[in-house]
């Protein structure tokens, strides 16, 4: 998707920075809620959805905590805490409702262009892990958001659920898995392009690719002055905006710092890169039709939970395994090696040094991952696919993630694994920082942006918001009937049955 004709005015109501799923989602929300507002979008690359939203750059799971074990930590007494899993699943249900609204109203013509039903599984081995998974299933399956989750330790049942994983596996090993048919695969790159297509072609919002936002500062009138460079023509111009959203992935931190808002003080970033093994043999790809997640290694970040992942990309099935984490000083896949050094400021260096001091297991893990040989990567794959051959798999570079570092009164600084909206007190600028669960929760995250930045408009927008997200203002976790009703409806609209 290329740039549209530049708008004649240098003043707009809203500027969206970044051509990813976050900017696209917020843009659609605002266009639906306030169609008279002018919206301009700026993307540094040649087209939208080329960074973290691209299908090859993210896991595409449709994070709903059905299979991701890192969302259900085990307590010291052996019980399993499902609090975060419930929150993540509820957030994904909001995304499903939002997407269903767009399908029903013709914004998206065919849901199968971006979302596909795929079983979600958790798989473990070893007595202690089997006990953990059994407890996890007992806790989750009793909750309405996780209704229908099955559990088994029977090798015959496991072979039916995941034949590739069980083929030629050593007999007698303690194994267990959970299985649910409510899972999905989401191509966030395709979804992003669909949303921007609506914004540009139907809503008339100018999209400027190959435009790099270089500075954001307050103007004398209180509006934000956004300095943009046209990378094709090597020219600059300033766009004035009442509201600016910085949704440029790892690049959001540096732009947030340039705003000078007090809320950005003390915030830093820790970049983590990723790689996957991609199967090149169609016969093997056809043998596996599920997302199978295992347990992360000690010291591994949440985004590094190993999984054997069925994907649907450009209408074709694909099979990935990983991720293998790594370290780069880039904040974006197509960023600069100077991104990390340039992000260090007097107000965040203490927090960043404290995180470096307190996170040696993570540092050690990343060093080990960077130094891995292909045979070591294949060894990890064979824990999931005993019959895996090197000739059937190739290494691909995934997206770049930047975890949030924030000041902490006791520790000096803490490394956060998640996403966070940071906005100015007056709500005129907001930035999204962080990683997982990321794209899967774009809709609820953008509802957070609306609440933080447009509180005065919410009463006026409430009826429309409830039309777009029927559970708006309610909690599905505490309303089993509404949960079942909306799951049934979104399953039908999104063609997931």
From TrEMBL:
Its EC number is 1.1.5.4. The keyword Lipoprotein does not apply. It comes from the Bacteria. Keywords: FAD, Flavoprotein, Oxidoreductase, Tricarboxylic acid cycle. The keyword Hydrolase does not apply. InterPro entries: FAD/NAD-bd_sf (IPR036188), MQO (IPR006231). Its cofactor is FAD. GO terms for molecular function: L-malate dehydrogenase (quinone) activity. It is an enzyme of class 1 (oxidoreductase). It holds the Pfam family Mqo. Pathway: Carbohydrate metabolism; tricarboxylic acid cycle; oxaloacetate from (S)-malate (quinone route): step 1/1. It catalyses: (S)-malate + a quinone = a quinol + oxaloacetate. Transmembrane segments: none annotated. Belongs to the MQO family. This is Probable malate:quinone oxidoreductase. The gene is mqo.
């Amino acid at each position: 998707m290329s740039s549209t004709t530049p708008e004649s005015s240098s003043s707009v109501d809203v500027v969206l920075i970044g051509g990813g799923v976050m900017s696209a989602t917020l843009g659609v929300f605002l266009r639906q809620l306030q169609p008279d507002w002018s919206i301009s979008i700026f993307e540094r690359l040649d087209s939208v959805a080329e960074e973290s939203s691209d299908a090859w750059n993210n896991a595409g799971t449709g994070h709903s905590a059905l299979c991701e074990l890192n969302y259900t930590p085990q307590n010291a007494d052996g019980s399993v805490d499902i609090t975060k899993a419930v929150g993540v699943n509820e957030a994904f249900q909001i995304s499903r409702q939002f997407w269903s609204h767009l399908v029903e109203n013709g914004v998206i013509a065919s849901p199968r262009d971006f979302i596909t039903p795929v079983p979600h599984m958790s798989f473990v081995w070893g007595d202690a892990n089997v006990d953990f998974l059994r407890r996890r299933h007992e806790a989750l399956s009793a909750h309405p958001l996780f209704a229908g989750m099955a559990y088994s330790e029977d090798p015959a049942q496991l072979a039916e659920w995941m034949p590739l994983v069980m083929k030629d596996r050593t007999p007698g090993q303690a194994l267990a898995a959970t299985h649910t048919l409510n899972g999905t695969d989401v191509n966030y790159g395709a979804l992003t392009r669909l949303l921007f297509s609506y914004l540009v072609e139907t809503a008339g919002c100018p999209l400027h690719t190959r435009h790099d936002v270089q500075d954001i500062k307050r103007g004398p009138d209180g509006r934000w002055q956004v300095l943009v460079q046209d990378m094709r023509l090597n020219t600059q111009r300033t766009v004035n905006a009442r509201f600016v959203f910085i949704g440029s992935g790892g690049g959001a931190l540096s732009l947030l710092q340039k705003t000078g808002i007090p809320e950005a003080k003390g915030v830093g970033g820790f970049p983590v890169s990723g790689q996957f093994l991609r199967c090149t043999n169609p016969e093997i790809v056809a043998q596996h039709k599920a997302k199978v997640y295992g347990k992360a290694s000690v010291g591994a970040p949440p985004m590094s939970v190993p999984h054997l992942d069925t994907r649907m990309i450009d209408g074709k099935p694909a099979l990935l395994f990983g991720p293998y984490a790594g370290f780069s000083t880039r904040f974006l896949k197509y960023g600069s090696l100077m991104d990390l050094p340039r992000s260090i400021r007097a107000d965040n260096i203490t927090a960043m040094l404290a995180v470096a001091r307190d996170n040696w297991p993570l540092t050690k893990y990343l060093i080990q991952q960077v130094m891995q040989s292909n045979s070591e990567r294949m060894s990890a794959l064979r824990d999931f696919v005993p019959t895996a051959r090197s000739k059937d798999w190739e290494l691909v570079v995934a997206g770049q993630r930047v975890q949030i570092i924030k000041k902490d009164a006791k520790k000096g600084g803490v490394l956060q694994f998640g996403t966070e909206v940071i906005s100015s007190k007056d709500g005129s600028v907001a930035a999204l920082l962080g990683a997982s669960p990321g794209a899967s929760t774009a809709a609820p995250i953008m509802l957070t942006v609306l609440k933080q930045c447009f509180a005065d408009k919410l009463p006026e927008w409430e009826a429309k918001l409830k039309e777009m997200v029927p559970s708006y203002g309610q909690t599905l976790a505490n309303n089993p009937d509404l949960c079942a009703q909306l799951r049934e409806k979104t399953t039908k609209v999104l063609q997931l049955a």
